[in-house]
Task: structure prediction
Amino acid sequence: MTPSPAKRYLTARSLETLVGDFGGGLPTTATPAAVTSRRDADRPLLRDYLPRRGQAQPGHGWSPVPAPLAVYRATSADIGGVFPMIATNGLPPTGALVGWDALSGGAFFCDPMGWVLNKIVTNPNIITFGKPGMGKTTTIMLILLRLMRFGVKTFIPGDVKGEYEDLCRALGVEPFAVGIGMETRINPIDLGPMGQGWDRLDREELLNRSRLIFGRWQVLLKALIGAKGVQVSAADEDVLTVVLEELTGWGRGTTHLTPIIIPQIWQAMREPSPELVADCRYPDRQAFLDGTRHITAALGGMCRGSLSGLFDAHTNITVDWNAPIQSLSLQRLQSLGDEAVGVALACSNSWSRAMTDMRTQGDIRLIVRDEVWRQMRLGLGAVESLDADLRLSRAEGAIQWVIGHKPSDLLSVGDAGSRAVTIAKDMIALCDTKILLGQDPQVAGELDELLELGDLQRDWVTGWARQKEGRALWVVGGRTFKVQAVQSATEKTLMDTNVALKAQG
Result:
């Protein structure tokens, strides 16, 4: 016979019985302190003789109905079992104030280097994904501006859209710009500070510096050649090394390195000297020309192609590295296409590495790698270049900030299963801080595959974060946070990336 609803209600177990089944018990009611004397009872804070509803006078808190309150005394562990409180595994309140954490209601701070020192993360690198219009660039500018108060200097080696130009000018820094018909020249194989004081170094330091310089140049040349669809073999790398050593004088044991430019490399391979042919182990000059024709033709694009006159001469600008921000704008190259912009990014990144190879102790720089997918699509060499920057960031005191639209950008750098794609996917692990702004629901599968997010975090990105600009899921080490970035009125004016759209409207 089925008991009636009233019968079932009367025979249901109480909360006290339910907790007791698991060996626990509800907190006991707190025992009110005993009144020891009439004098104690007369004290205002201990007047327990007042009516439960208070005194019926203005300003005395009288209530028509007494509040049915019960007082318990218990630990937070006991209370958490009865009333599930919501809290987050918070971060130290150090670094730049970003906004507030939607889970806890508290302030949220960004401190990449501090997180490394506190062992919250293993590297200071940051990677950001976000659909256009979700406040990606605005959030980045907000953070880098506020980190400047802590001595962090920002460098944007490739501002593809010119979005950081107004911020630079507001800080008293005129951004450099590269474009057709402009006077600015950048030598991507510049020696930089490492070429100074060469004659005062001991043999071991000379070898270390030469490896770093020639290694950086090799990576760049492979990227530029790969951009033309040419695969660089081990024999080709050996030829490039010999050419570099001959042109700089390193192969002749000189006490200093001679600055060179890309047209010199191209010309040396078009008109090889007998010494170069012999050092590269070719039987004669014609065999050298035939064996290196593919890489010679690829380098010719830098000297006679769409980017001629931009990266094929000695650097003619002087950078103030003590300024809070420096930017190299590539906005004027947009009309040349993605490949030209990608090559320009590779050149500017190589040049920036040369300029910052020897930082002073305690000098922290934030390097913004915007539109990084354009550079990575140049081929394996470009992917390896970015990978090297991420791996060396901690030792060099640099914060590498990689920016893309969606995770699949990393998978479009080569064929499935290729070495380029494998390295690109591993880059996510080299960025312990991930900022995921709003994305379309179709991107949810990519988030699961590459970032291993749970269903709840994925819904935050494809739902909550899309409802307002500046909302993002932050993954710091193994911790997740729902963060709303907050701008001041001044920052809204400086960081408005929709100025062109508003002007057209």
